[in-house]
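Appendix C: a fully annotated inverse folding record. The material below is reproduced so that readers can follow the format used throughout the book. The structure is listed first as tokens, followed by the designed sequence.
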């Protein structure tokens, strides 16, 4: 079928969790009595508040945590990038990694293990769901699409713009909930 300006794209929108759903998962991880509950909570919190890829998380070193950002070294595409970091998360990461040498990975874990931890708290989700959730939440709170592109490390703005479709769909659904009559 030939595309016209009026034909709709059939692209699949990324699956994401609402802030409330993320909060439920974080609360479960935070109150879990398991051996690695503190680590699990901090990993999930970091994924959601930074939007980093799971590979960035498992390769995160103490030396990459700066005053107001995390430096991702040799991320996807072998590129470095900077991700803003809120003060509280920075302090939690530094406290957790306090006894580690600066060049040691903070979370000694694999990407597969991270995804298994996420499934423990929310069966259908995976690490990339947290990345999508970060992006949608960021835009819903008024964040810039260009800044989001930089945070996520997308080479092309079109890759990031898919999140605008989600936010636009949510706006329409919220609008339709209003009893105008």
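Designed amino acids, in order:
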């Amino acid at each position: 079928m030939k595309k016209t300006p009026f034909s709709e794209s059939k692209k699949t929108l990324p699956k994401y969790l609402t802030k409330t759903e993320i909060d439920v998962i974080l609360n479960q991880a935070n109150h879990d009595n398991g051996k690695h509950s503190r680590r699990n909570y901090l990993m999930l919190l970091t994924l959601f508040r930074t939007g980093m890829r799971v590979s960035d998380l498992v390769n995160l070193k103490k030396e990459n945590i700066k005053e107001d950002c995390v430096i991702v070294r040799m991320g996807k595409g072998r590129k470095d990038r900077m991700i803003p970091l809120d003060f509280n998360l920075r302090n939690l990461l530094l406290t957790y990694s306090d006894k580690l040498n600066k060049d040691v990975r903070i979370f000694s874990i694999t990407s597969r293990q991270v995804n298994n931890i996420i499934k423990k708290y929310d069966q259908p989700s995976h690490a990339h769901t947290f990345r999508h959730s970060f992006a949608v939440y960021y835009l819903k709170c008024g964040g810039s699409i260009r800044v989001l592109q930089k945070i996520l490390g997308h080479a092309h703005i079109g890759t990031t713009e898919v999140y605008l479709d989600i936010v636009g769909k949510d706006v329409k659904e919220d609008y339709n909930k209003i009893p105008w009559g």
